[in-house]
C-alpha cells in the first residue's frame, strides 16, 4: 500500500518586471531575488503549517510534524520567465507516510486487508512454511509522577504509553535483551505467488550480495531476533486474570489501568459493524528491556498476518490542515510583505545607482 505525500494546495507566485528581467543591470539580480523570495515564502508557509498542526494537537506519534521538518518538505519545481513575468513554483510537502490520512481522514478498515503481503520491500517476513507476517513494535514509556512528567515536558501522547508504577517496577528489574541478526533471506518471485512452496525460500550468508544458490532471488531482510543477554527475559503477564490492575498512573494517585481490553466496536464498513475482539493477553505481556544504559527502551511486539482477527482501524475525520494553511497564506499581509520586501531590496539599490 503506497500513500502519496500530501502537498500544500498550489500557491501561485508571479512577478511582473515590465522588461526588468531582460535588463542586463537588473535582470540577473532580480531573478535571484524572486527565487529567494519564493523560498522565504515557502519556509514561512512551512512554519505556519507546523504551527497549525501543533495548535490542533496533531502529535499522536510526532510523525506528522517530522514530515514537515525533513529536507524534502520544501523543493523547487520550476523557475522561468514568461514574457515579462517571472514564475517560480515551489512544493511544500508533508513527507510523513500517513499525512494524507490526517488531512483527508478515512473510513474504518481492516489493517490486514490494506497490507501488500506480496511486497518486495523486505518488511514483510515469512515463516518457515512461507506464511507472511508483519511484526509491529509498541513502545512503553517509563513511569513518572505528574510533577516529574511536567518538569520533563512529556507530551500527552507519551503519557498515554506510560506504564503504571507496578508494571514499571517489574520492567526495571528485567535484564536487557540484545538484537541478533540471523542473516538475509532470498526468495524467488515464484515463492511470492505460492507461499507454501518452501523450496523458494533460502537463508543466505550475512553478506548483502546473493551467492550462487540465491541467484535471481529477491533479497528480504530476515527477522531481527532478540535473544536474552545475561539475565535478560521478557515480562510474563499471561497469568493475569482481572481486566484491570491497580497502580500509580501519571497523576501520582492510585488508578485503575486497563490491562486486557474487552471487545470493541471501531466503526462500520459495507458489511456492518467492525469489531475488535477481546485481547487474549495483557498489553504488557512479553515486554522486554533493551537499548544502552542511558537510553533504555521498553517494548512489546505483536504480530499480524493475513488471517489475524481484529486489527480493525476506526474511522477518522479529516483535519484538512493544509487547505487551511493555503487559505491563510493567500490572504496574509505578512506573507505578501515578505515577498515584496525581498524583491524591493534587490531592485532599489540597483536603480538608484547612477
Summarize the topology.
Elements lengths: L5 E2 L5 E4 L10 H29 L7 H7 L4 E9 L2 E10 L4 H6 E2 L2 E2 H4 L10 E2 L5 E8 L6 H7 L3 H5 L4 H8 L4 E5 L3 E3 L1 H5 L7 E3 L14 E3 L3 E5 L15 E5 L5 E5 L5 E6 L2 E5 L11 E3 L6 E8 L7 E2 L2 E2 L3 H10 L2 H19 L3
Antiparallel strand pairs: 1-4, 2-4, 3-4, 5-21, 6-20, 7-8, 8-19, 9-13, 10-11, 10-12, 14-15, 16-17, 18-19
Helix count? 10
Q: How many domains is the backbone divided into?
A: 3
**Oligomeric state:** single chain
Overall number of strands:
21
Indicate the proportion of strand residues: 25-35%
What structural class do helix, strand and pairing data support?
alpha+beta
Which word captures the global form? elongated
Major sheet size, sense and barrel closure = 4 strands, antiparallel
Range of helix content? 25-40%
Arithmetic mean of pLDDT: 74
Radius of gyration: 27 Å
Termini distance? Answer: 62 Å
Low-confidence stretches: 16-21, 189-211, 350-354
Summarize the structure in short.
Helix content is 28%, strand content 27%. With 354 residues, it is α+β, with helices and mostly antiparallel strands.
Provide structural commentary:
The strands form 8 sheets. Strands 1, 2, 3 and 4 form a 4-stranded antiparallel sheet that branches. Strands 7-8-19-18 form a 4-stranded antiparallel sheet, with no helix packed on it. The protein has a 3-stranded antiparallel sheet with strand order 11-10-12. The chain has helices at about 25-55, 65-70, 100-105, 110-115, 145-150, 155-160, 165-170, 190-195, 320-330, 335-350; strands at about 5, 15, 75-80, 85-95, 105, 110, 125, 130-140, 175-180, 185, 200-205, 220, 225-230, 245-250, 255-260, 265-270, 270-275, 290, 295-305, 310-315, 315. It folds into 3 domains: about 5-105 and about 315-350; about 110-180 and about 225-315, no CATH class; about 185-220, no CATH class. By secondary structure, the chain is α+β, with helices and mostly antiparallel strands. A hairpin with a 5-residue loop joins β14 (about 245-250) and β15.
Amino acid at each position: 500500500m503506497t500513500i502519496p505525500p500530501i502537498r500544500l494546495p498550489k500557491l501561485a507566485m508571479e512577478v511582473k518586471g515590465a522588461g526588468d528581467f531582460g535588463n542586463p543591470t537588473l535582470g540577473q539580480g532580480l531573478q535571484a531575488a524572486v527565487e529567494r523570495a519564493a523560498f522565504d515564502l515557502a519556509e514561512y508557509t512551512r512554519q505556519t503549517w507546523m504551527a497549525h498542526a501543533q495548535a490542533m494537537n496533531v502529535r499522536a506519534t510526532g510523525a506528522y510534524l517530522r514530515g514537515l521538518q525533513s529536507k524534502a518538505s520544501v523543493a523547487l519545481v520550476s523557475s522561468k520567465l514568461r514574457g515579462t513575468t517571472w514564475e517560480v513554483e515551489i512544493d511544500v510537502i508533508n513527507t510523513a507516510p500517513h499525512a494524507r490520512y490526517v488531512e483527508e481522514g478515512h473510513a474504518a478498515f481492516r489493517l490486514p486487508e490494506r497490507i501488500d503481503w506480496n511486497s518486495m520491500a523486505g518488511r514483510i517476513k515469512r515463516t518457515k512454511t512461507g506464511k507472511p507476517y508483519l511484526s509491529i513494535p509498541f513502545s512503553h514509556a517509563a513511569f513518572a509522577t505528574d510533577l516529574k512528567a511536567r518538569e520533563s515536558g512529556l507530551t500527552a501522547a507519551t503519557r498515554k504509553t506510560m506504564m503504571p508504577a507496578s508494571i514499571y517496577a517489574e520492567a526495571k528489574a528485567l535484564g536487557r535483551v540484545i538484537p541478533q541478526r540471523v542473516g538475509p533471506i532470498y526468495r524467488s518471485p515464484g515463492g511470492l505467488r505460492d507461499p507454501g512452496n518452501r523450496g523458494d525460500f533460502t537463508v543466505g550468508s550475512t553478506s548483502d550480495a546473493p551467492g550462487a544458490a540465491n541467484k535471481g532471488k529477491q533479497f528480504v531482510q530476515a527477522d531481527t531476533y532478540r535473544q536474552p543477554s545475561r539475565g535478560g527475559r521478557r515480562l510474563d503477564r499471561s497469568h493475569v486474570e482481572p481486566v484491570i490492575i491497580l497502580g500509580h498512573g501519571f497523576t501520582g494517585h492510585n488508578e485503575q489501568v486497563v490491562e486486557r481490553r474487552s471487545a470493541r466496536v471501531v466503526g462500520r464498513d459495507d458489511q456492518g459493524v467492525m469489531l475488535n475482539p477481546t485481547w487474549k493477553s495483557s498489553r504488557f505481556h512479553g515486554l522486554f528491556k533493551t537499548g544502552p544504559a542511558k537510553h533504555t527502551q521498553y517494548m512489546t511486539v505483536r504480530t499480524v498476518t493475513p488471517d489475524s482477527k481484529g486489527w480493525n482501524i476506526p474511522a477518522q475525520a479529516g483535519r484538512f490542515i493544509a487547505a487551511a494553511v493555503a487559505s491563510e497564506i493567500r490572504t496574509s499581509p505578512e506573507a505578501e510583505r515578505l515577498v515584496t520586501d525581498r524583491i524591493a531590496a534587490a531592485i532599489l539599490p540597483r536603480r538608484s545607482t547612477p
